[in-house]
Design goal:
This protein is an alpha+beta fold. It has 20 helices and 23 strands.
Length: about 675
C-alpha cells in the first residue's frame, strides 16, 4: 500500500509539473505574440512567427490564417505554418468562394468556434466542407473567427492530418487570444495604409499646384517636380529630376539653403526664404521658397518639399523703389492709377498721388489728413486688423466699398504690398474702380439668363408643336405622291414637273421640321433614350444598304471594318442608326466620283469608337470649328453648297452627347475628313 501510494504521488507530481510547465509555455508564447502585435514592425513576418509558435505549442499539423476580401465573397489562405512532414496547402487555397463553405461561414458569422474532432463525422449540412477538408487529408481541426474593426475579416485555425481527436480548452484559449491580437495588428496596419494613401493624395495635389513644387531626397537630389518647372525654369520635368538642388541656386544663396535645412530638421518647416536660381538658359530668377519635411511611417525624414514662387517681378519693383526716391516720387505722383501709401499700424494715409486725390475728390492736404477708415466703409477695428496682416504678406488682393467726398459709394479692387521706408514697413496700395465692371457683369448675367429662358421657351414650344407642324405637311406630301402615281388620271409634263417639285420640296421641308423638332426636344429635355442591345456590325450593314444607291450614283464605294470584339452594344438603336446614317450621308456628299467612304468600328478601353472616313477634299480649320453648329452648311469650290438642312451634324452631336459620348472631326484640306465619335459600351444610366 505504501509503495503504491508513493508511485501515485510521484505520478501526480510529474503531471502537476508538466501542467505547470505547459502553462508557463502558454504564457511565454502569448506574451511574445502580444508584444509583436501591439506595434507590428513587419506584420506579415509577425503573423508567420505567431502561427509557428501556436502550432508547435498546440501540437498541430498546420496553423493558418484566411482573410476575406473586401467584396465579402472570396477568401484566401494568406499565412500558413506546417509541422515537419506535413504538406503545405496555401497555394491551393486561393480565391475560395464563400458560397462553397456555407455551413462554415454561417458559424463564423455567428461568432462560433468551429471544433471538429473527427472530419468524417461532420453532419449532412456540412457536406461541402467535409469534401474540401477530406481532399486536404485533415482529420480534425479547430477554427476561430478573426475580427478587424468589429467586422468578420477571416479566421484562424489549427488542424491535424494524422489523428482525430478533441482540441483542449487551453488550445481554444490560446487561439482566442492570438486571433484577437492578430486582428488588432491587421487593423492597425490597415489604418496606417489608409493614412499613407491620404498622404499620397495630398502629395498629388501639390504636383498640380500653381507654383513650382520640388521633392528633394535626403542627399539633396531632386526626385520629382510638377509641370510648372518648364514655365519657371525652362526645363522639362525629366531634365530636372536627378539634379542636386544646390546646382540650381546661386552660390551666395547656398548658406540660406543650409539654414533652411537646419530649420526643417529642427521644427519640420522653413518659410519665406528668398533665393536667386538659374534658368536652363542661364538667366536668373528670384523666388520665394516655403519648404517642409516629409516623414515616413517611423517618423524619419525622407524627403523635403519645396514650394517655389516666382517673385522676379516683385523684386524688380522693389529694386526700382529703392534705387531713387526722386524716381519713386515721379512714378508715384504721375501714375494714372489711384495709389496710396498707408501706415498699417494706424491706418493713416501717409501719401496719395494726384489720381487718388482726383478720384476721391479731396485736395492733397485734406487727403493726407484722412485715415483709411474715413474711406473704407468697414469698421475701423476690422480695417486695422486686416492692415496688420497685410504687412506680413508679400502681396495682398482685396475687394472693398469706398466712400468718395460727395458720399457716393464705389466698388473697388485693391492690391497692396509692404515696402520699407526709413526703416518702417508701410503698405503701397493700388486702387481700381470696378463699379462699372460689376454693373456690366450683372447686366450680362441678367441678359444671359433671359436669353437662356427665351431659348428654353422656344425649344419647349417647338417640341410641343410636333403634331401641328407635321400633320398638314404630311397631307401635302401624301396627296402630291398620290398625284404622281397618276391613278386618278394622267398628268402632262408640266403638271408632272410641278407635282414632283411639290413632293420634293415638301419632303425637304418635312426633314427640316423633323430635325428642328428633334433638336428642340433635346434642348428642352424631352428627348429620351430607348436603350437596348444590338449588333454594331448588323447596324453598319443596314446603313450601308440604305446609302449604297446614293453612293452608286457617284461610283463611290462604302467599305467597313468592325473589330471582332465589338459585337453587342447597349444604346438607343434608332439614334445610333441616325448618327451613322447622317455621317455616312455627309461623307458621300463631299467625296468625289470613284472615291471611298470607310466606316471603322472598334473597342477603345470601355468605349465603342466609330470612325467615318472619306477621300474628299477635306474641311478647312475655320469650317471644322463650326461644323457642329446648327444651320451650318459646308462649302467648297469643287462641289459648291450641298443640299441639306444644316442640322444633321448638330443633331449627331446632340445624340452622341445624350449617350455620354464625344464627337470630333479630324481633317486637312485636300486630305479627306474623319468624323469620330465614342460612346460607352455599357452606359451607367
Amino acid at each position: 500500500m505504501s509503495c503504491s501510494g508513493t508511485v501515485f504521488d510521484i505520478n501526480s507530481r510529474i503531471k502537476s509539473k508538466e501542467s505547470i510547465r505547459y502553462k508557463l509555455e502558454i504564457e511565454e508564447v502569448l506574451l511574445e505574440i502580444s508584444n509583436m502585435f501591439i506595434a507590428p514592425a513587419n506584420l506579415e513576418k509577425d503573423i508567420d512567427v505567431a502561427l509557428e509558435k501556436i502550432g508547435m505549442l498546440c501540437g498541430a499539423g498546420r496553423s493558418y490564417i484566411f482573410l476575406i476580401r473586401e467584396n465579402g465573397t472570396i477568401f484566401d489562405n494568406t499565412h500558413e505554418w506546417c509541422a515537419e512532414g506535413v504538406e503545405p496547402e496555401k497555394n491551393n487555397l486561393q480565391n475560395v468562394l464563400c458560397e462553397e463553405c456555407p455551413w462554415w461561414m454561417e458559424k463564423l458569422s455567428n461568432d462560433e468556434v468551429i471544433h471538429i474532432p473527427d472530419v468524417s463525422a461532420l453532419p449532412p449540412e456540412a457536406a461541402m466542407e467535409k469534401e474540401v477538408l477530406g481532399k486536404q487529408g485533415i482529420k480534425s481541426l479547430i477554427v476561430l473567427p478573426l475580427y478587424v474593426s468589429g467586422m468578420l475579416a477571416g479566421f484562424m485555425g489549427l488542424d491535424n492530418v494524422v489523428n482525430t481527436g478533441n482540441w483542449g480548452k487551453d488550445d481554444v484559449s490560446i487561439l482566442r487570444i492570438a486571433v484577437n491580437l492578430m486582428g488588432m495588428g491587421i487593423q492597425r496596419k490597415r489604418a496606417e495604409k489608409a493614412i499613407h494613401v491620404g498622404e499620397e493624395i495630398y502629395r498629388s495635389m501639390f504636383k498640380n499646384a500653381a507654383n513650382l513644387i520640388l521633392f528633394v531626397d535626403k542627399k539633396g537630389v531632386i526626385v520629382e517636380c510638377n509641370s510648372r518647372v518648364e514655365e519657371l525654369l525652362g526645363y522639362r520635368q525629366d531634365e530636372l529630376i536627378g539634379r542636386p538642388i544646390k546646382n540650381l541656386i546661386f552660390s551666395d544663396c547656398l548658406k540660406k539653403l543650409k539654414e533652411a535645412s537646419d530649420e526643417i530638421e529642427r521644427r519640420g518647416f522653413s518659410f519665406n526664404k528668398e533665393y536667386r536660381i538659374f534658368r536652363k538658359d542661364g538667366r536668373p530668377v528670384d523666388v520665394n521658397v516655403n519648404s517642409s519635411g516629409l516623414k515616413d511611417e517611423n517618423g524619419h525624414q525622407i524627403q523635403t518639399i519645396f514650394i517655389v514662387e516666382d517673385i522676379t517681378e516683385r523684386k524688380k519693383a522693389e529694386k526700382l523703389i529703392k534705387e531713387s526716391e526722386s524716381r519713386y516720387s515721379f512714378l508715384f505722383q504721375n501714375n494714372r492709377a489711384v495709389i496710396m501709401l498707408l501706415d498699417p499700424e494706424t491706418g493713416n494715409i501717409l501719401d496719395a498721388n494726384s489720381a487718388a486725390c482726383v478720384y476721391y475728390g479731396y485736395p492733397r492736404e485734406k487727403m493726407l489728413s484722412l485715415n483709411i477708415a474715413d474711406i473704407n466703409i468697414l469698421p475701423k477695428e476690422q480695417i486695422l486688423e486686416g492692415l496688420e496682416q497685410e504687412k506680413s504678406r508679400d502681396i495682398n488682393h482685396f475687394y472693398f466699398i469706398h466712400r468718395l467726398s460727395n458720399g457716393v459709394l464705389r466698388d473697388v479692387e485693391r492690391y497692396s504690398y509692404p515696402i520699407l521706408m526709413d526703416g518702417k514697413k508701410l503698405l503701397f496700395a493700388i486702387v481700381s474702380d470696378i463699379t462699372d465692371n460689376r454693373k456690366m457683369q450683372s447686366e450680362l448675367m441678367k441678359a444671359k439668363m433671359e436669353a437662356e429662358l427665351a431659348s428654353k421657351t422656344k425649344s419647349e414650344f417647338l417640341a410641343s408643336m410636333s403634331h401641328e407642324l407635321r400633320t398638314p405637311l404630311n397631307s401635302i406630301i401624301g396627296f402630291s405622291d398620290m398625284l404622281l402615281t397618276q391613278n386618278f388620271g394622267p398628268l402632262n409634263d408640266k403638271q408632272l414637273r410641278y407635282v414632283s417639285n411639290i413632293s420634293m420640296s415638301g419632303n425637304h421641308l418635312l426633314k427640316l421640321i423633323n430635325d428642328i423638332l428633334d433638336l428642340s426636344k433635346v434642348e428642352a429635355g424631352k428627348m429620351e433614350l430607348k436603350v437596348e442591345e444590338f449588333s454594331v456590325s448588323d447596324l453598319i450593314s443596314e446603313v450601308k444598304a440604305l446609302l449604297t444607291p446614293l453612293a452608286s450614283k457617284k461610283d463611290i464605294q462604302i467599305l467597313s471594318t468592325v473589330d471582332k470584339e465589338l459585337t453587342i452594344i447597349r444604346a438607343d438603336r434608332m439614334k445610333f442608326r441616325q448618327i451613322l446614317y447622317n455621317l455616312v450621308d455627309n461623307a458621300i456628299k463631299f467625296t468625289p466620283k470613284d472615291g471611298y467612304v470607310i466606316v471603322e468600328a472598334r473597342i477603345e478601353e470601355d468605349q465603342a469608337k466609330i470612325v467615318v472616313r472619306d477621300t474628299g477634299v477635306g474641311i478647312s480649320e475655320a469650317e471644322a470649328k463650326k461644323v457642329f453648329q446648327p444651320f451650318t452648311q459646308l462649302e467648297n469650290s469643287e462641289y459648291g453648297e450641298q443640299k441639306g438642312t444644316g442640322l444633321g451634324l448638330s443633331l449627331v452631336k446632340k445624340f452622341v452627347e445624350m449617350h455620354a459620348g464625344k464627337i470630333w472631326v479630324e481633317s486637312e484640306f485636300e486630305e479627306g475628313s474623319k468624323f469620330i465619335f465614342t460612346i460607352p459600351l455599357n452606359p451607367a444610366n
